[in-house]
Every structure is written in structure tokens, then in C-alpha cells.
Amino acid sequence: AFSCGTIGGILFAKIMNLFLDEKINPLIGSAGVSAVPMAARISHHLGQQANPNNFLLPHAMGPNVAGVIGSAVIAGVFISLVA
Q1: Distance in angstroms (rounded) separating the CA atoms of residues 34 and 43
Q2: What is the Cα–Cα distance from 65 to 33, expressed in whole angstroms?
Q3: Which residues cross the membrane (predicted)?
Q4: In this structure, which long-range contacts are made by residues 17-25, counting pairs with CB atoms below 8 Å and at least 24 apart in sequence?
């Protein structure tokens, strides 16, 4: 599930970059899984390896928290379907 979420986030960011004037870093898409705060930290760490001036942590926490909220909503939907 984490692999699919990470790959989906990166691909979605790359597709969005085709249509945007101001490009976004695809590493932000990889932070969209609900593993708080490790997914955001990994995105930040990989961004700093590529360019030491990158500071992605605050930008990566947004999709990271959105992944948590999405997981909670889906869990509620699943519970309502079972109950």
C-alpha cells in the first residue's frame, strides 16, 4: 500500500507538471502516504541529497497530513460498510 501510494503521488505530480507553469517537486507527491512524519522526512532527506539548498519538510507535511485524513475517512467508510 505504501509503495502504491508513493508511486501514485510521484506520477500524479509529474502529470501535473505537464500542465503547470510553476513546477512542483515530485518528492512532495511521495509524502502523501499516511506514515507521519517519516514519509515527509524521507522526501526532505532525498531532496537535500540532490540539492543541499532544498528545504522540503514543511511542504511535504501538507500532503502527509492529507494522507492521514484520507486514511481516516476511508476507514470510516469501510467500517460503515461492514457494520
Answers
A1: 13
A2: 8
A3: 61-82
A4: 25/54, 25/56, 25/59
What tens digit of pLDDT does each residue of 28-74 get? 878 878 778 888 899 899 999 999 998 989 988 988 888 889 888 98
Report which DSSP code applies to 83: -
In the chain, where the domains are located? 2-82
For residues 20, 34, 77, 14, the Cα torsion angle rounded to the nearest 10 degrees is: 20
State the residue for C-alpha cell 469501510: 78
Amino acid identity at 66:
A
Q: What is the pTM of this model?
A: 0.70
